[in-house]
Automatic annotation (TrEMBL):
<dbReference type="InterPro" id="IPR037214">
    <property type="entry name" value="TROVE_dom_sf"/>
</dbReference>
<dbReference type="Pfam" id="PF05731">
    <property type="entry name" value="TROVE"/>
</dbReference>
<dbReference type="InterPro" id="IPR008858">
    <property type="entry name" value="TROVE_dom"/>
</dbReference>
<dbReference type="InterPro" id="IPR056800">
    <property type="entry name" value="vWA_Ro60"/>
</dbReference>
<keyword id="KW-0963">Cytoplasm</keyword>
<protein>
    <submittedName>
        <fullName>RNA-binding protein</fullName>
    </submittedName>
</protein>
<feature type="compositionally biased region" description="Polar residues">
    <location>
        <begin position="17"/>
        <end position="26"/>
    </location>
</feature>
<keyword id="KW-0479">Metal-binding</keyword>
<dbReference type="GO" id="GO:0005737">
    <property type="term" value="C:cytoplasm"/>
</dbReference>
<dbReference type="InterPro" id="IPR040322">
    <property type="entry name" value="TROVE2"/>
</dbReference>
<feature type="domain" description="TROVE">
    <location>
        <begin position="24"/>
        <end position="353"/>
    </location>
</feature>
<dbReference type="GO" id="GO:0003723">
    <property type="term" value="F:RNA binding"/>
</dbReference>
<feature type="region of interest" description="Disordered">
    <location>
        <begin position="1"/>
        <end position="33"/>
    </location>
</feature>
<dbReference type="InterPro" id="IPR036465">
    <property type="entry name" value="vWFA_dom_sf"/>
</dbReference>
<dbReference type="GO" id="GO:0046872">
    <property type="term" value="F:metal ion binding"/>
</dbReference>
<dbReference type="Pfam" id="PF25045">
    <property type="entry name" value="vWA_Ro60"/>
</dbReference>
<comment type="similarity">
    <text>Belongs to the Ro 60 kDa family.</text>
</comment>
Length: 518
């Protein structure tokens, strides 16, 4: 074996950068490394559910920090901010964070009389038909009824792009309805048919009786179904043309459930399943079992769930498959969910050599990702840590908190099964876990919220790894201070709830800079 002519990781630049020495402290008192504004904003944005309390920050405190950072960066670099907003809503799937970021970026720029690009920021955040109303509701609630022109025009651009018959059926809800958006922003219709839709949405918002225009065939078909007596509705499901009739009327499973006004039987689900979207299927596996959906139909659902192309197109985050696995009553979904999870982790690289993967299982990781979710940051960390270890050539997988423990696994074993072996472990003694488990590995990956504990072992955790060995911290918390330096050499921080961050590791180890993912 060559003694001198060996490749070494000399280090490359990465996007998330901090000071090289501590200037503050983590929430547990360990030395804290302050990041530049873009880095802090990025890590907060990809973990911020907006209006949600985390272990160390109240919802108001966290949201205030987010708004302040957005405003500051939008003034310094509007192009970077616009790209962040578009990526945040699209690839990262962070709907609320993107809406708030767009509104606050434009607000900060207008206060300072900055023009150019503001309209584009608003439009970039809006990719689903309920989001123009969502952004206006946020703006009106926070800044009053005066709508600046860039906000009006950006929302109008999105309304023209997103508003159609089916989106009206599905998303015309909330305090700010389609008709409100149209009246407040005056979008110019793209076609005569969309003009008919805009006028109908306004009339519907104001409760004015009006015949549905002939051009709006889907809405007319839906009105016919709604007019059908309740006692006759279930019989429609037994008709041979039921699937076509329901599709022509734009009936989603949610609207059909309300329309039936009765128990959701196997016949109900089997008629609507072919028209259901990917995420809707994933959410309803337990309901399919409860209703007694046939094995034949279940097999069709499983095939769709496991299809890698549909997984990628759906942009469902990996943790959703864990949630579905836990919720499903039947094991007939397990293999499909495992395959779907693997497809959602397509960016996790097969790292060569020896890798130490440390997964934070401390109390601060036990908070739910949102009030509506049963999943926690600890769940996300376990999924990503297990997947990385599974794909690596040779990996040690360790969970840590106050103490640490190895997590056994086999190559090609189900990630969902490996995740079941993780447990809660108390505090965040990251330094002890690194020092006790590092054994001449080629790299170290720490999946954590970075709120390291200050105590007997509370020094900077990455100092226990030789300077020439890369340490990658995957941040799932988005707090202000990190547990170590990042951005240059062999110390790097990534963030987010998807697998995309892992793709930067091979770039850095090849000596190439790993820039922002947008």
């Amino acid at each position: 074996m060559a003694k001198f002519n060996r490749s070494r990781v000399t280090g490359a630049l990465s996007a998330v950068r901090s000071r090289s020495t501590p200037t503050g402290s983590t929430h547990e008192g360990a030395p804290g490394y302050e990041r530049d504004a873009k880095s802090e904003l990025f890590l907060l944005a990809v973990s911020n559910m907006v209006g949600e309390q985390t272990f160390y920050e109240g919802a108001d405190e966290r949201d205030d920090r987010f708004r302040t950072l957005v405003g500051r960066v939008a003034l310094d670099d509007p192009d970077w901010t616009a790209r962040l907003i578009g990526w945040l809503r699209g690839e990262a799937g962070m709907r609320s964070a993107a809406v708030v970021a767009a509104a606050e970026a434009v607000r900060a720029r207008l206060v300072e009389r900055r023009s150019g690009g503001n309209r584009r920021m608003i439009d970039a955040a809006l990719q689903r038909a309920d989001e123009p109303g969502e952004l206006l509701a946020y703006w009106l609630g926070r800044y009053g009824r005066a709508l600046p022109q860039p906000v009006k025009r950006g929302v109008a651009d999105a309304a023209r792009r997103l508003y159609g018959e089916r989106s009206l059926i599905k998303h015309d809800t909330g305090n700010v309805r389609f008709g409100d958006v149209i009246e407040l922003t005056h979008p110019r219709p793209r076609t005569p048919k969309q003009g008919d839709l805009f006028r109908f949405a306004i009339d519907r918002r104001h409760g004015r009786d009006r015949d549905i225009p002939a051009s709006l065939s889907t809405l007319r078909a839906r009105a016919e179904l709604v007019a059908l007596p309740v006692r006759e509705r279930r019989a429609l499901l037994d008709r041979p043309d039921a699937e076509r009739v329901l599709a022509d009327a734009g009936m989603t499973w949610e609207s059909l459930a309300g329309w039936i006004q009765g128990p959701l039987t196997a016949a109900f689900w089997e008629r609507i399943i072919p028209s259901m979207g990917y995420f809707a299927l994933l959410r309803n596996l337990r309901n399919f079992d409860k209703a007694g959906v046939s094995d034949e139909v279940a097999a069709q659902v499983a095939e769709r769930l496991a299809d890698p192309e549909q997984v990628v197109r759906s942009k469902v985050l990996p943790m959703r498959f864990l949630a579905a696995y836990r919720a499903a009553a039947s094991l007939r979904w397990a293999w499909a969910l495992e395959r779907a999870l693997n497809a959602s982790l397509v960016h996790v690289p097969a790292l060569p050599g020896r890798t130490l993967v440390l997964v934070d299982r401390s109390g601060s990781m036990s908070m739910r990702l949102s009030a509506r979710s049963e999943l926690t940051s600890a769940d996300a960390a376990a999924v990503f840590g297990a997947a990385l270890a599974q794909r690596a050539e040779d990996a040690d997988l360790v969970q840590f908190g106050t103490d640490y423990a190895k997590v056994p696994f086999r190559r090609r074993e189900s990630v969902l099964k490996v995740v079941e072996r993780f447990r809660d472990m108390g505090g965040t003694n990251t330094a002890r876990a690194v020092r006790a488990n590092y054994r001449r590995h080629d790299r170290v990956v720490i999946v954590t919220d970075e709120q390291a504990w200050w105590g007997q072992d509370g020094e900077e955790p990455t100092r226990h790894v030789p300077p020439h060995v890369p340490v990658y911290t995957w941040n799932l918390g988005g707090y202000q201070y990190g547990h170590g330096p990042s951005g240059t050499g062999t110390r790097h921080v990534f963030g987010g709830l998807s697998d995309a961050a892992f793709s930067m590791i091979p770039l850095i180890e090849a000596g190439r800079n790993a820039d922002w993912p947008f």
